[in-house]
Design brief:
With about 300 residues, the protein is mainly beta. The protein has 2 domains: about 100 residues, no CATH class; about 150 residues, no CATH class.
């Protein structure tokens, strides 16, 4: 029997071609079942919660996996392996926040981003119907410093109320979209680096749901806000002076188990060092700089 001998160069070339062909095949398979996230402005949730992605297939959520985010906004994982058939059939992507130890296979009510697929990608933002349903780019607000719940004139810089006095009488100061069920607005004053809540609300022309720090001499106005007069949290002293602090309007999950503002902060206002009481000041819209957004590619 004759034995055919191939030159070594020819043999190596053949093996190289076969290897390259196999690598291409493997790459195609990997690309067909991979989902990649490019999302910015997500916050560190701490040890008790994680982010979880979902694709919507035939109207039902299919998990794409969980990840965390560090203090610099870097995702612990950006690429996820997903069943190719599900990826092809997916119409939308939704991002939720889940308990770190979660036995429930369904997504939680806290859905913060969403987007519809167009060809191979989806632009995700809070404006998707599964999330908050609005861009919040038109959000605006005004506030005053005053303490209407006390009779003293010595503590007028110790309260913040989200209203306008530009017309000479108290008037609505906030222009905010209506929130979907499961969300509420919350006011904050950041005092000596500590965020202190002024209460949650869903209506801008009504009092908020709490007044734990206000005085007892008078009722507050029928607008969101708070006087920081009594019951100061540990580390703070009331009455205080809000000059040089920061006031914030955030969007919070409801119910909410956190004592800090949620990542959605559409309105922020640094209070001037020489701020005056009963003068109307403007908020700044911080949506473009702080709201999570990005692209999901399949």
């Amino acid at each position: 029997m004759k034995r055919f001998r191939f030159p070594l160069a020819v043999l190596f070339l053949s093996l190289f071609i076969i290897s390259c062909d196999n690598d291409d095949d493997n790459d195609d398979v990997m690309l067909d079942n991979m989902l990649t996230l490019d999302i910015k402005y997500l916050e560190n949730l701490g040890a008790d919660e994680v982010y979880e992605g979902w694709i919507v297939v035939d109207g039902k959520p299919v998990s794409t996996g969980t990840f965390t985010v560090d203090d610099d906004g870097k995702l612990s994982k950006t690429t996820f392996t997903v069943d190719e058939m599900y990826l092809i059939a997916a119409t939308d992507f939704v991002l939720s926040i889940e308990p770190a130890n979660d036995d429930d296979p369904a997504p939680s009510a806290i859905k913060i981003l969403g987007g519809s697929f167009s060809e191979s990608s989806a632009d995700v933002s809070v404006s998707h119907g599964a999330a908050l349903g609005s861009t919040f780019k038109s959000a605006a607000g005004k506030y005053i410093l005053a303490t209407p719940t006390t009779n003293s004139m010595e503590d007028e810089l110790s309260g913040v109320w989200f209203l306008s006095l530009e017309s000479g009488a108290p008037a609505v100061g906030l222009n905010l979209p209506e929130l979907p069920s499961g969300w509420a607005y919350e006011g904050w004053a950041v005092i000596d680096g500590m965020p202190v809540s002024t209460g949650t609300f869903t209506e801008v022309d009504m009092a908020d749901n709490a007044a734990p720090y206000s005085g007892t001499d008078n009722l507050g106005p029928s607008f969101p806000g708070e006087d920081f007069i009594q019951n100061a949290p540990d580390g703070l002293t009331f009455p205080t002076d809000l000059s040089g602090t920061t006031v914030v309007i955030s969007i919070e999950p409801s119910p909410d188990n956190s004592s800090a503002p949620f990542m959605f902060k559409p309105l922020v206002a640094p209070v001037m060092e020489d701020a005056m009481d009963h003068k109307t000041y403007d908020f700044m819209n911080k949506v473009a700089e702080t709201f999570p957004m990005g692209t999901v590619t399949r």
